[in-house]
Amino acid sequence: MSQAQLAGEELTKGFISQLESGSVRPSIRSLQLIASRLGKSLDYFLGDEPLSLQKRLEFLDLAAQAALERSDWTELRRIGDEALRLDLHPEQRASFLRWCAQASVGSGDNEAAFELADEALRLVDRASAPAVHAGTLLVKGIAYGNIGQIFASSEAFEAALDTLDAHEILDVRLRSRVLVNLATTYRRLNRTAKAIQYYESALALANRHSDMRNVARSLTGIAVSLYDSGELDGAIANYRRALELFRRIEDQRFEQLVLLSLATLHTHQDKLDEAEAFARACRDRATAAGDTRFTAIADTELARVALARGDAKTALPLAQDAERHLGEAGDVYQQAGARRLVGAALHALGDHAGSDAAYDGAIELARGIEMFPSVSEYASEYAQKLRERGDYERAFQYLELARKNAGHAPSLL
């Protein structure tokens, strides 16, 4: 690694040279940046050097932020646990409980995340520690979204944004994350105009502060919202811009998300070769990273492509494996979508009893997490299958179910 590469955008080559010659002493922040690029912890450089409690907490907080940016949930939890063993006042303790909750969300333990976040919120309120309060609400919102409680998720994100606004908190990364997550929640509730509004706010904020990661995330959100409103060319253009940025900043998790979304868009445009290429690229990256959940989501898209080609024999095992892995991962939202594809494949293969069970299962999963637009979509599709079989009475029943759930979602406060 050259001195310029080690310096990156935040430091300078001259500073690295002076540091190597021993003529300057780095700040904790500078050392954290260097440690992150070298794949080491600060402890590796500091060793047993005594630090005051405040310096130690500053170091641990910076290390936690760096672990969050790397999505290193094991390291983030280790840092949080180390801090919580120290003699902390309530605000400090709440701050590190928030990091532990974030680590739990990242590793898929949403129940632990709720417990840690609630403990943090009992220690501080929006008046005493607004940034910690907002950050903790953000974590709760993500956890609610992970278990399909979309309305509770939106309320947590709205409360976090209200806290940031009321106390004029200038933490750009925190505000960007709240805006992007809130926009995504509105998109899942089919409130496209509201979603685009928040995505554009996040994009403007990230652009002003040259925060390329959140620029890319905002572009992704705008692309999805444009897709939802039928503007496919605009959606693809924004996705391509986002993908280029994610590759530049080496954000693999969001690169996977963009690849998957590009696959979905091309499937809907009936560009199946391109869709398969994007889905396979997403699957390859997820498999290399050991991300079984995202591998399963990519398999779901590959099954969708196979069905669009009329190849139900290929689609069925892909969808069945994806549905099983997503169930094990606790991703009910994606599991329901995979089970729906199982139903479509079994119908195409003539197994009507299996198809009935799969569609009913998908509808019940979506209903269980109150994803009423999905209930409506699955019921409508199933009604079409029943009509193809000549079962008009049940087809009518499922069309009624689709109609009722299409307008079921209550408006948000």
Give the N-to-C terminal Cα separation. 52 Å
Helix content: over 70%
Question: What would you call the structural class?
Answer: mainly alpha
- Give the amount of beta strand, in percent: under 5%
Report low-confidence residues grouped into runs of 5 or more. Answer: 408-413
Features:
Serine Threonine Protein Phosphatase 5, Tetratricopeptide repeat, mainly alpha, 413 residues, single chain, 80% helix, globular
Structure in words:
There is one protein chain. With 413 residues, the chain is mostly helical. Among the domains are: 144 residues, Serine Threonine Protein Phosphatase 5, Tetratricopeptide repeat (Alpha Horseshoe); 136 residues, Alpha Horseshoe (Serine Threonine Protein Phosphatase 5, Tetratricopeptide repeat), CATH 1.25.40. 80% of the residues lie in helices and 0% in strands. It has 22 helices and no strands. The termini are far apart. The relative contact order is 0.05. The C terminus is likely disordered.
In short:
Among the domains are: 26-169, Serine Threonine Protein Phosphatase 5, Tetratricopeptide repeat (Alpha Horseshoe); 278-413, Tetratricopeptide repeat domain (Serine Threonine Protein Phosphatase 5, Tetratricopeptide repeat, Alpha Horseshoe). Helix content is 80%, strand content 0%.
What topology does this entry show?
Layout: H1 3-7, H2 13-21, H3 28-37, H4 42-46, H5 53-70, H6 73-84, H7 90-106, H8 110-123, H9 130-146, H10 150-166, H11 172-188, H12 192-208, H13 212-228, H14 232-249, H15 252-268, H16 272-288, H17 292-308, H18 312-329, H19 332-348, H20 352-368, H21 372-389, H22 392-406
